[in-house]
Amino acid sequence: MAELVIVDTGCANISSVYFAVKRLGTEPVISREADVIKAASRVIVPGVGSAKAAMANLAERELIATLQSLTQPVLGICLGMQMLTAHSMEGDVACLGLIPGEVAPLNAAGLRLPHMGWNTLHSISSHPIMQGFTEQDYLYFVHSFAVVPSQYSLAQCHYGSDFAAVIGKDNVAGAQFHPERSGKVGARLLQNFLEWQL
Amino acid sequence: MLAKRLIPCLDVRDGKVVKGVQFRNHEIIGDIVPLAQRYAEAGADELVFYDITASSDGRVVDKSWVRRIAEVIDIPFCVAGGIKSVADAGKILEMGADKVSINSPALSNPQLIADLNATFGQQCVVIGIDSFFDVASGQYQVYQFTGDETRTQKTQWLTRDWVSEVQRLGAGEIVLNCMNQDGVRQGYDIAQLKTIRDLCKVPLIASGGAGTMQHFTEVFQQADVDGALAASVFHKGIIQISELKAKLIADGISIRP
């Protein structure tokens, strides 16, 4: 049984997520096999690109039911986080529905899009995966769509308007920013995820 | 608040970091991976690697260094040079780069911008533009194949028109390299960057001319760029990133400490 499986979603940032987790001293497995993913003790769902293409990838790989059935800790990253919600307006596509919520175009109030660069968090919860985070920490974001804040937000970010930077429910969590590209602060989120006890 | 980005640029030739003056006379600065690692640890917000030979000489260029960088670097990085197709870009992104930057091939085949956008998403499509002020016409014009002096040529594009066109085609970010300023450390081309800023609705990165810490303050305050790219001042130790960040914060600019 693999300790940590990174789901091969067919998206481009799998290598960087793999290397980031490896730098923390674990040996992740990249897989698109349902059996391997189900047997993992933890699962990361990476993703970049568009929601519609990424959900189509998951469907083609017959992974949607598998991901919906997981009971171990799951972490979605960037588009992988958006796919945890019920629906994305990017291509009007149904997502995994693991965390209630809606992905909508980021209301940047006239600021430039994509929201690209290092930004801070606010409304940080005491959830285990947010352990050690403060409002002074900078994380690296690249996106034009975002999850609308709700009771499932574990941290928010402000860019023209507030959006959910981290979400969580039961065994599932997701980060809009790229922990694998957010220096030591990003590594902390990944470490928290590796240590998260349900 | 979104921070302005400081972006060391490493020009790469045969896996070594090199630097020339106004695109010429390249000297070797050092090995790529340790330099990249040093910059990440020093507080760089992002790194750009320009394979300066690739666009010009037509041969297949070994890009395995991209994977070696991805293994050790925990900040975003972009790879430029010699990416001529969706397949080329896919390989670079698969090896762990966060973005690809397209320059000459986008001028030869603008549709490439739209294809990259459709395949990988807007967020990883950076368009590099080499812009030269033509004294005779009084206009900024786009140049192509600037990695090789013998092939460098003026295109039919005025810089402002090309900036609009690449956004229409789906660029996610623009790096504007002001060639008159490149490598001479006399300051960024504020006048040009301000003009382009007004037309540019995606993130805009200033490139070419950084010589002092004050130049960074000026480009952020006066041209409102999202990031400032520089090479020689960092490579030669003229500016330390930590000191630069402290100054920019003192000047009231939003910066990741």
TrEMBL record, chain A:
Keyword Hydrolase: yes
Pathway: Amino-acid biosynthesis; L-histidine biosynthesis; L-histidine from 5-phospho-alpha-D-ribose 1-diphosphate: step 5/9
Keyword Amino-acid biosynthesis carried by entry: yes
InterPro entries in alphabetical order: Class_I_gatase-like, GATASE, Imidazole-glycPsynth_HisH
Domain Glutamine amidotransferase: 21-194
CDD domains: GATase1_IGP_Synthase
Localization per record: Cytoplasm
Catalytic activity of the protein: 5-[(5-phospho-1-deoxy-D-ribulos-1-ylimino)methylamino]-1-(5-phospho-beta-D-ribosyl)imidazole-4-carboxamide + L-glutamine = D-erythro-1-(imidazol-4-yl)glycerol 3-phosphate + 5-amino-1-(5-phospho-beta-D-ribosyl)imidazole-4-carboxamide + L-glutamate + H(+); L-glutamine + H2O = L-glutamate + NH4(+)
Enzyme active site: 78 (nucleophile), 178, 180
Pfam families: GATase
Gene3D superfamilies, A to Z: 3.40.50.880
Keyword vocabulary terms for this entry: Amino-acid biosynthesis, Cytoplasm, Glutamine amidotransferase, Histidine biosynthesis, Hydrolase, Lyase
E.C. no: 4.3.2.10, 3.5.1.2
Predominant location category: cytoplasm
Protein task: IGPS catalyzes the conversion of PRFAR and glutamine to IGP, AICAR and glutamate. The HisH subunit catalyzes the hydrolysis of glutamine to glutamate and ammonia as part of the synthesis of IGP and AICAR. The resulting ammonia molecule is channeled to the active site of HisF.
Quaternary structure (record): Heterodimer of HisH and HisF.
Protein name in the entry: Imidazole glycerol phosphate synthase subunit HisH
Gene encoding the protein: hisH
Automatic annotation (TrEMBL), chain B:
Main location: cytoplasm
InterPro entries registered for this protein in UniProt: Aldolase_TIM, His_biosynth, HisF, IGPS_HisA/HisF, RibuloseP-bd_barrel
Catalytic-site annotation from UniProt: 11, 130
Pathway in which this enzyme or protein is active: Amino-acid biosynthesis; L-histidine biosynthesis; L-histidine from 5-phospho-alpha-D-ribose 1-diphosphate: step 5/9
Pfam families named among the record's database cross-references: His_biosynth
Keywords from the named record: Amino-acid biosynthesis, Cytoplasm, Histidine biosynthesis, Lyase
Catalysis: reaction(s): 5-[(5-phospho-1-deoxy-D-ribulos-1-ylimino)methylamino]-1-(5-phospho-beta-D-ribosyl)imidazole-4-carboxamide + L-glutamine = D-erythro-1-(imidazol-4-yl)glycerol 3-phosphate + 5-amino-1-(5-phospho-beta-D-ribosyl)imidazole-4-carboxamide + L-glutamate + H(+)
EC number: 4.3.2.10
Gene3D superfamilies listed in its UniProt record: Aldolase class I
Keyword ATP-binding appears in the UniProt entry: no
Subcellular location: Cytoplasm
Family matches, as CDD domains: HisF (cd04731)
Quaternary structure and interacting proteins, as annotated: Heterodimer of HisH and HisF.
NCBIfam families reported in the protein's UniProt record: hisF
Function of the molecule: IGPS catalyzes the conversion of PRFAR and glutamine to IGP, AICAR and glutamate. The HisF subunit catalyzes the cyclization activity that produces IGP and AICAR from PRFAR using the ammonia provided by the HisH subunit.
Family: Belongs to the HisA/HisF family.
Protein name: Imidazole glycerol phosphate synthase subunit HisF
Origin species: Alishewanella tabrizica
Gene from which the chain derives: hisF
